[in-house]
Amino acid sequence: MASPRSERTINRSAAAVIPLFMIAGVVYATWVVVVKVAVEYLIHPSKRYQQLGIPPRHGAAIAILVLYFILLPPMALCYLRTLQIIWTDPGYTSLGQKAEKDTAPGLEQFYTKDVFVCDSQGRPIWCEKCKNWKPDRTHHCSQVGRCVYRMDHFCPWVGGIVSENNLKFFIQFNSYGALYTTFVMIVMAVFLAERKQKAGDVQATWAVALALAAMFCLFSVGMAASTLQLTSQNLTTIENLNRGNAVYYLAALVESPGPVKSPVGRSGYGPGIVTYPNQAHQSQPLQDSGERMRTREYIILQTEAGDNPWDIGPLRNLKSILGDNWYDWLLPIKYSPCTKHDRDDSHFEFGPVVEKLKRQAGLIPQYNSEKPSRHRHKRRHRRHKREEIRT
Ligand SMILES: [Zn+2]
């Protein structure tokens, strides 16, 4: 078995070379479909072919050329956009000051939030390699030795890291790639079969184009389907690996003093309660608008194994990556909405799993009469309708 170091070298070398092969593959497919099939076979078939019952077919050639040049540019643009992000902005977290855990600065970016992912002691997650705090959903990429925001996976096919910054373009590339390769595969299969039947010959260049199209079709359909499915559940590929057993500790702000019940009784600062600033971090007083901030108290919550705290429903999960408008879903231009990180309350929006935990801990009332939930609102709406029908 390869050592992690040599595996890393192989992956990084593959990442540098494979994009060149991908581009060469598209150039080759274009040459075969446009020149060999459309021009030489369909528009100007040789005399021998015409005698064997293969006539010139201008209409078919034009249809193939038009469809080919409709399907190629979106795939190529999404691929280039994905590569561009990998080369310029793959979503590394800032390197910080490489301090030791007990004295490391930067805690205020967590303790000004209402909820954040923490360890069982209520402190943010620490990266031993970067010597820095990890914002929620950050993963340390061993291939490049950096922490990456909402990293999805390291993909040799696109030559680097797929993260929140380019996951959208990666999904678009695979989806357009699935359409493009399906089309090339159909064209090649149809005319290869016709030529074999009528002229009895098989061109190697055609067969290679068919084999490449079939291989990449399988690959891009699989990748498009799996990444879309995970995105609809708001899971990264890395989070999905340990999905069934994953348990998250979450530090949740106690906004008003009152009885709270922590399910985690192991905190070093109290029974599942953490305060900030505290003894351990007096060296970095928390500043807010120039004023020293009051002490904030956090309760440690714990999710059930397999629960995904970021699942906010399939459509909103998809929108957080693909965008709010239909054209954002199609065009590889804008970054995903989830990359803004402009929420005051958390790094990423939390879903019903966290609301339930907060309710159980007494952080939010069991019944909130001011703001009916969507379900209760719907139930009430249905009851009104029934009453209207009766009267
Ligand atoms: Zn790291």
Automatic annotation (TrEMBL):
GO CC annotations on file: endoplasmic reticulum; Golgi apparatus; membrane
Catalyzed reaction equations: L-cysteinyl-[protein] + hexadecanoyl-CoA = S-hexadecanoyl-L-cysteinyl-[protein] + CoA
InterPro entries: Palmitoyltrfase_DHHC, PFA4/ZDH16/20/ERF2-like
Transmembrane spans: 14-39, 60-82, 173-192, 204-225
Zinc is among the record's keywords: no
Cell compartment(s), UniProt: Membrane
Protein name per UniProt: Palmitoyltransferase
